[in-house]
Amino acid sequence: MIIELLKLWGVKRIYGVIGDAIFGLMEGLSRQNDLEWVGVKHDSVAAMMASAEAKLTGRIGVCAAQMGPGLTNLMTGLGDAYLDRVPVLAISGQAPTPKIGTAYKQYIDQQGLVQAITGFSRIVVHPNAVVDTLTQAMFTAMEQAIPVHLSIPSDLWTLPCGAKPREPIQIANQIAGHSQLQQAANLILKAKRPLILAGNRANHACDAIRKLADRWGCGIVMSYGAKGIIAGSHPYLLGGLGEGGNPFCKRRMQTSGCRPCHRYLLVAGISCP
Fold first, then answer.
1. What's the maximum distance between 2 C-alpha atoms anywhere in the chain?
2. What is the pLDDT of residues 16-49, one digit of tens each?
3. Is 70 exceeded by the pLDDT of residue 261?
4. How many CB atoms neighbour CB 242 within 10 A?
5. How many helices (H) and strands (E) does the chain have?
6. Distances (CA, A) of 185 to 19, 197, 198, 251
7. Could you tell me which of 191, 127, 207 has the C-alpha nearest to residue 163?
8. Which one of 29, 42, 241, 269 has the lowest number of neighbouring Cβ atoms within 10 Å?
C-alpha cells in the first residue's frame, strides 16, 4: 500500500540504508519494478540525495532508514531540506508496537527528535491508518515545501491493509491574476535602477530570469539557498547574499525595497518583508 501511494504521488526512487526495522519495506520493493531503491553507505547521504532530488525536480524526495541511529543520521539532510524549503518524506522503522516506550534496542522517541526540522511527523499504529497518515504527510510536504516523517513499527509491515489507495490531493497553484501581473509590469517599467533578487523557489524560472535581466539590463542577486541557479559566467550576476556571497550585495539590498518610491525593484522568488 505504501509503495502504491508513493507511485501515485509521482515518486520514482527511494534513497536509504537497509535495516531490520524496514525489512518489510525492502521486501515490498523487491516485488515490483516501478520504484527504484538507491542504496547508500550512510543514511545522511540518503537524506541529502532526497533533498537534492526535490530541489531539482520539484517532486517529493523520499529517503528511508533504520529506527534509532538510522533516523538520527538522516537529520542533517532533513535539516538541509527544511532550511531550503523543499518537500522530503523520511520513512523510518520503529520498534514493534508492544515494545514502543520500553527499553527496547535502539528505541527512541522519533517524533520528538524530528519535530524541530519537519512540518509533520507521525507514528503509524495500525495498517489501515497508513493511507490517511501517508497522504497527509505527502500533502503537507508538497503544500508547505517542508520535510515530513513517518515512523512505522516493524511488526506492521507484513500485516494486511484493508484501506484502499487514494488519489493525490490536488494542490492549487498560486498564480497571480491579471491585475497583479499588470501592477508588477507597471513597477518594472517605472524602475530606474532595477535589481532582481532570486530565491530558491525560483529555480524553475532561471531561463526567464536571465532573459529579463538581459532585456532589462539589471543585476541579479541570489539568496543563499539559490546559488547556482544562474551560471557564474552571466554578465549581470552580482553574486549572492549571506556568508560566502558578495559583501557589496547586502549594502545594495538594504537600500532597495518592493515599494515604487524606492530606487530599486526586487523580483523575488522568496518572500520580501
1. 68
2. 999 999 999 999 999 999 999 999 999 999 999 9
3. no
4. 13
5. 9, 9
6. 55, 16, 17, 26
7. 127
8. 42
Angle (deg, nearest 10), helices 43-57 and 69-84: 30
Distance CA 272, CA 257 (A): 8
Helices (H), the chain: 2-8, 23-30, 43-57, 69-84, 110-114, 130-144, 178-190, 206-216, 247-254
**Could you tell me how far CA 240 lies from the centroid of its own chain?**
21
Looking at the chain, how many residues does it have? Answer: 273
**Collapsing DSSP states into helix, strand and coil, what is residue 246?**
coil
pLDDT of residue 232: 83
Return d(Cα 73, Cα 44) in angstroms, integer: 5
Q: How far is CA 20 from CA 118, 124, 267, in A?
A: 24, 17, 49
Cell of 40: 547508500
Backbone angles phi, psi at 26, to 5 degrees: -65, -40
**Taking CA 195 as the corner, what is the angle to CA 271 and CA 208, rounded to the nearest 5 degrees?**
75
Q: Answer for the pair 158, 24: CB distance below 8 angstroms, yes or no.
A: yes
Q: Answer whether 4's CB lies under 8 Å from 28's CB.
A: no
Q: Is the pLDDT of residue 259 over 50?
A: no
Task: Give the C-alpha separation, 154 to 207, whole Å.
Answer: 46
For the chain, give the mean pLDDT. 87
- d(Cα 25, Cα 166) in Å, to the nearest integer? 19
